[in-house]
Amino acid sequence: MTNQNYLVTVDNSQYVLRIPNKINSLLINRSYEEYNSKLASDIGVNVDTLYFNSKTGVKLTEYLHGSRVLRKTDILNDLVVREISKTFLNLHNKDVKFVNRFSVLSEFNYYVSLLKDKSRFLNYHSLIAELINFFYKLNDKYFSHENKVSPCHNDLVLENILLKENKIFLIDWEYSGMNSPVFDIAAFLLEAELDAEESCYFLEHYYGDVFPTYREDILNKIRSYQFSQDLLWFVWTLIKEEHNEYFGDYAKYRLERSIRIMEEIKL
């Protein structure tokens, strides 16, 4: 949704060339992305990065032959679910540090500061003030008191997850940083649009024996992060629209879902 990617062939070898859109320079710190994505490659969860220009965001990476974007139907395959869980745990449990801290509330406040027409944001829906207030309550309850922060991808849409022979790779580390692992899990479940049964099936693999014991607490925290993500990417979309990038009803969809999720969360 944010970049142009080209398949490039040089001397019978293939690479992916990324050309970012101009507005991304406001939203993304390329120095952070460069450091984190190379570290993720060292960990083994990212493809190899061959060239990265931290000023322009132009990037050249290895083309992963035989890979494809993860599909929702893949997540119903036990072997694939185990591999996704293994990859996430490998990232989240590594004793390494990304160069930056990703705070969803800080990102939200920053995105709001970038809006040229803040009145459009504040008047977009009658519940905006309530949503913002709820966001701050969740920050006080969960986000600002995380006991564990880990290397996180922070943008786990299915398009950023590649499957190759039952091995999982995560690509596009633009929003990566140290964060609660729950943020990644919440994003993955939200973006894959898994229902309650499918979500619990995955969570049983990721959390193991811990999940049945703390099921309700884990699910409530996941929903809290999903609420924050929908509100964050809603504002992100408004910024894009102010710079003539349009994604249909994406902003409305994100906002309306955040309202539904808010009603499910127990404070």
From TrEMBL:
Example GO biological process: phosphatidylethanolamine biosynthetic process
GO molecular function: ethanolamine kinase activity
UniProt xrefs under PANTHER family: CHOLINE/ETHANOALAMINE KINASE, ETHANOLAMINE KINASE
A Pfam family per the record: Choline_kinase
GO CC annotation: cytoplasm
CDD domains in the record: ChoK-like (cd05151)
Name of the protein this chain belongs to: Choline kinase
